[in-house]
Every structure is written in structure tokens, then in C-alpha cells.
């Protein structure tokens, strides 16, 4: 049955930045498909997401840490494996954004954004990838952005980091595809999350954004769940190095 290829029974997933927004929705979707899920949070606790997974009857664990710190990546992967015995799926969702005109952009902001959005993605992928390569299978899903393709406005570090995520996805896929480890990405469009509150509240930018989106609305975190489940399941076993845009049609305009 084709639907069986979307099931994740017996699989173990680590989802970073899953206390709310995109990460929480993806974590819940993976749990609904049968996976055990390690949920990570930094400034916000992932406990609420874990409680929702537990109510579904799923196995879960809450993990905490700042992915701007190099040691956090190892802690998350090691804790997931210690709790569940392995790691089959890694969703690199955690991210941050700091806004300022490029001419005034502070180097500490540049470093903080690149550390969290790009360097931690590589560290986590490398650490989880070692386990996946040893066991001969695994799925890594990176959360990229429309700004993997476009430059944005007043977000130079974010755009640079998300461009890097797209290219890192392809680079890892080139090395690991033949070893049954899939590395892909989703590039969300304009989604209602805490990272986009400033845009949602800006009357001019909000109007401009909606005028360009063919679907005529902001995306919701749940709009990514189908794509995430596909790329984390056996249904996508021959998909490698792909950046799947989920944007209400923004890029087609």
C-alpha cells in the first residue's frame, strides 16, 4: 500500500526548534505518523509539544540548549540516541533572525545568526549523519527559506545563512545519497510564526506580501507538514538534494 510508505513506525526523530511554530507542527506530524520524537527548544520550552505528542500516545523527550554554542549539537544528538537507541530522522528547523540595514549590521548579530542557522545545521547533520551512515539509512530535512533564492530586505545574515543551508543540503546529498541517507530541504514561504511578526504587523509590507502570493494568504505552520512527512519517510527514498518550495505560489510570480 502506498500509504504505508509514509508511515514512520519504529523511527526516531530529532526536531530542533520544536517548541512552537514550524518545528512544533513538524514534530507532531512525525509523531502522528508513528515516530518517537526528541523535541528541542532554547528560549522557549518544548514541553508543550512533548505533552501533545504524549497525548497521541507517542514516545518523546524534551531537550534544551542554545544551538549558537557548538557543544549543544553533540548534546542533542547524544541525548536522542541515549533515550531511544538510535536516530533515523533529523529535522534542522531551529533558526533566528536579526533585522538591520546592511550598512549598520553588527558583526555580533552576523555571527549569532550564522552560528545558529548554518553552522549548527552542519554540526548536527555531521553528528547524526555518522550514525545514519553506520546503520545504512537515515533522513535529514533542513528548513531553508525563500531567502535561499532571494536577498530579502534588512536581513543580510539570515539570507546568507539560508542560502548556505540550500547549498549544504546539496553538498551532503552528493556524498551520502549512495549510502541510503537522504538529505533534502523545505523552503517555506511567508508563514505565520514569531519570526515574521514584524512583517505581519507592518501594514505596507503585509499588503505587498499578500499581493504577490497567488494563494492570497499567509501560510500556516501546518501547511509544511505534508511536505515534511514525505521527505522524512520511505516515500521519498529516491529524492536527494532537493529544496522543496512551499510558498503559496510566491516563487512562480
Give a written overview of the molecule.
The chain is of the alpha/beta class and 253 residues long. It has a single domain, classed as NAD(P)-binding Rossmann-like Domain (Rossmann fold). Helices cover 43% and strands 15% of the residues. It is built from 8 helices and 7 strands; from the N terminus they run βαβαβαβαβαβαααβ. The protein has helices at residues 21-32, 47-55, 70-84, 107-135, 156-176, 197-201, 203-212, 225-232, and strands spanning 12-15, 36-41, 60-64, 89-92, 138-143, 181-188, 243-246. A 7-stranded parallel sheet has the order 3-2-1-4-5-6-7, with helices on both faces. Helix 3 (70-84) runs parallel beside helix 4. The longest helix is centred in the middle third of the chain and has 29 residues, at 107-135. The radius of gyration is 17 Å and the shape is globular. The termini are far apart.
Question: What labels describe this entry?
Answer:
Rossmann fold; seven-stranded parallel sheet; globular; alpha/beta
CATH homologous superfamily annotation: NAD(P)-binding Rossmann-like Domain
Q: Count of helices?
A: 8
Mean pLDDT: 97
What's the architecture in CATH terms? 3-Layer(aba) Sandwich
Domain tally: 1
Q: What's the gyration radius in Å?
A: 17 Å
In whole angstroms, the N-to-C terminal distance is 37 Å
> Helices and strands: which structural class?
alpha/beta
- The tally of strands reads 7
Order of helices and strands: EHEHEHEHEHEHHHE
CATH class membership = Alpha Beta
Judging from the principal axes of the Cα atoms, what is the shape? globular
Amino acid at each position: 500500500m502506498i500509504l504505508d510508505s509514509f508511515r514512520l513506525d519504529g523511527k526516531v526523530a530529532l526536531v530542533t526548534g520544536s517548541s512552537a511554530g514550524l518545528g512544533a507542527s513538524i514534530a507532531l506530524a512525525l509523531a502522528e505518523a508513528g515516530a518517537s520524537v526528541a523535541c528541542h527548544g532554547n528560549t522557549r520550552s518544548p514541553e508543550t509539544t512533548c505533552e501533545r505528542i504524549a497525548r497521541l500516545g507517542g514516545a518523546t523527550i524534551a531537550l534544551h540548549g542554545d544551538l549558537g554554542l557548538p557543544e549543544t549539537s553533540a548534546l542533542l544528538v547524544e541525548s536522542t540516541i541515549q533515550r531511544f537507541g538510535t536516530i533515523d530522522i533529523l529535522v534542522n528547523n531551529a533558526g533566528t533572525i536579526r533585522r538591520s540595514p546592511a550598512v549598520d549590521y553588527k558583526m555580533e548579530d552576523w555571527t549569532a545568526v550564522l552560528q545558529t542557522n548554518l553552522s549548527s545545521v552542519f554540526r548536527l547533520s555531521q553528528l547524526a549523519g555518522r550514525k545514519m551512515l553506520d546503520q545504512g539509512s537515515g533522513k535529514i530535512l533542513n528548513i531553508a527559506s525563500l531567502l535561499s533564492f532571494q536577498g530579502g530586505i534588512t536581513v543580510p545574515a539570515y539570507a546568507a545563512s539560508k542560502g548556505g543551508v540550500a547549498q549544504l543540503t546539496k553538498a551532503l546529498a552528493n556524498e551520502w545519497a549512495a549510502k541510503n541517507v537522504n538529505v533534502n530541504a523545505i523552503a517555506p514561504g511567508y508563514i505565520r510564526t514569531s519570526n515574521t511578526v514584524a512583517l505581519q504587523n507592518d501594514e505596507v509590507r503585509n499588503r505587498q506580501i499578500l499581493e504577490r502570493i497567488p494563494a492570497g494568504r499567509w501560510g500556516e505552520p501546518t501547511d509544511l507538514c505534508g511536505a515534511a512527512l514525505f521527505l522524512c519517510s520511505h516515500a521519498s527514498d529516491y529524492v536527494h538534494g532537493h529544496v522543496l518550495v512551499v510558498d503559496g505560489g510566491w516563487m512562480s510570480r
